[in-house]
Amino acid sequence: MMESAAINTELVCRLVRDVMRQPEAELPLHNPVFGANAETYVTQCVRTGWVSSVGKFVDRFEEDLAEYTGARRAIAVVNGTAALHVAQLLCGVRQGDEVLIPSLTFVATANSVAYCNAIPHFIDVSPLTLGVDPVKLGDYLDEIADFEAGVCINRKTGNPIRGLIGMHTFGHPFAIDEIKLVCQKYNLKFIEDAAESIGSFYKGQHTGVLSDIGIVSFNGNKTITTGGGGAILTNDEELANRAKHLTTTGKTPHPFRYIHDVVAYNYRMPNINAALGCSQLEDIEPLIASKRAIAERYIAAFTGVSGCGIFVEPKDCRSNYWLNAVVLDRNLAWQLNDIVESLHRAGIFARPAWELLHGLEMFKDCPRTDLSNSLDLGQRILNLPSTPNLSRV
Ligand SMILES: *Cc1c(COP(=O)(O)O)cnc(C)c1O
Q1: I need a surface site. Which of 31, 79, 277, 318 has the fewest CB within 10 A?
Q2: 191: CA distance to ligand 1 center in Å?
Q3: Which residue owns the Cα nearest ligand 1 atom 13?
Q4: What is the mean pLDDT of residues 323-341?
Q5: pLDDT of residue 21
Q6: Residue 96, Cβ density class (10 Å: 0-12 exposed, 13-18 middle, ≥19 buried)
Q7: Ligand 1: distance of its center to the CA of 225 in Å?
Q8: What one-character-per-residue DSSP string does 90-130 give?
Q9: What's the sign of the alpha-carbon dihedral 17, 328, 300, 293?
Q10: How sure is the predictor about 5, in pLDDT bands with cuts at 50, 70 and 90?
Q11: What is the value of pTM for the model shown?
Q12: Which whole number is the average pLDDT over 50-66?
C-alpha cells in the first residue's frame, strides 16, 4: 500500500481545488445558486408591485415546503432565528425556564432561548452525529432532574426544564429516535433546529418534522435561500394556526379593520423573498445531488490523507452535506488556525466550527453538563467550501 500523505496546508489547498474543480477562482464557503425561474418570479413581484406582505408566492412557498418536507404545515417567516423564537413560545417556554441546547451550534439557537427570557442549558454532542448525544443526555437528566406536577425540574437550580432543541449540524441528522425517547421520559418539548438541514432525511423522513415543531433557515449561506428567511414546520394544525397568528402581528381576519388580539410579531416572510424560495425549491433535488457529489469527492480525496478524518452522513440518513467537515487528529489540532489562515490567503474560505456557546460572554454563567466531546471536536473541525454547481453535477 502507498504511504498516505499527512495533512498540511498545501495538500488541503490542492484537494479542495480538485474537488471543487476550481483551479484558480476564489472559493467561498457556500454561495447561493439560482435556476432559471428565480428571475422570472422576482420580476413578477416587481412588475405587479406585490413585493411585501401580500401576494401569492408566500402561500405557494408554504404549500411547496409542506409538500417537499412532508410537514402538514409550513409557516414562512423572516429568518430562522425568528422561527426558533416563535417555536419556543408555541411550546410554552416562559421566563425562568431552562431549555437544553447543544453548545456546538450557531449563536441563534441560544439567542432565541434568551428572547423568551429563558435560560440556555448546554448539553454535549456525539462524535457520531455532531448532534446532541442521547446517552450523555439521558444519564445527565437521570442525575439532575426531578418532577413536580409532571414538569421536569433542574434539581440544582430549581428551574423548570421546559424543552430541548436538537440541531442537525452541517446538515447531518442527529439521533432523533433516541432523543425523542429521552424527551418523552422527562416530559420535555422537543424542537428541531433544522436551519442547516433542508433536504436532509432521517430514516426516510425530512428533518424538522420529527419533533413537536421544527424550523429551517433560508439565509444566503444555507443550502437554498430566499435572501433572508426561515420557516416553522409542524404536523399539528393547531400549533400551525397559532404560529401563523403570532408571526403576522396577531391580526384577526377582517376585510378592513385592524383588530389584534395578542402581543405578536411582524415575522411574516415578504412576497419577494418567497418568490425566490419557490424557484429554489423547484431546483432543490438537483442541487442536493450536486452537493452529495461534492461530498463524495471530498470523502474520496481525504480518505487517503493521514492526520485527519472526514465527516460522513450518519447511518439511515440522507444528508444534504450543507458544509463538508474535515476533523483533524487530536495531536494536530494546534494547526487548525494556521491552516484556515493560509487557506484564506489562497482564496479558499474554509472556517473552523463556531466558538462553543457556553464560553461566550452572555452565556458564560448558564448551566451546563460535561461538554468534553464539544470541547474536543470544537477545536478540530475544518469546514470546507461546499457550494453546489447546477451546471456541473
Ligand atoms: C443559520 C442558522 C440559524 C439561524 O437562521 P437565520 O435564518 O440566519 O436567522 C439557526 N440555527 C442554526 C444552527 C443555523 O445554522
Answers
A1: 31
A2: 14
A3: 106
A4: 96
A5: 94
A6: middle
A7: 12
A8: HTT--TT-EEEEESSS-HHHHHHHHHTT-EEEEE-B-TTTS
A9: negative
A10: confident
A11: 0.97
A12: 91
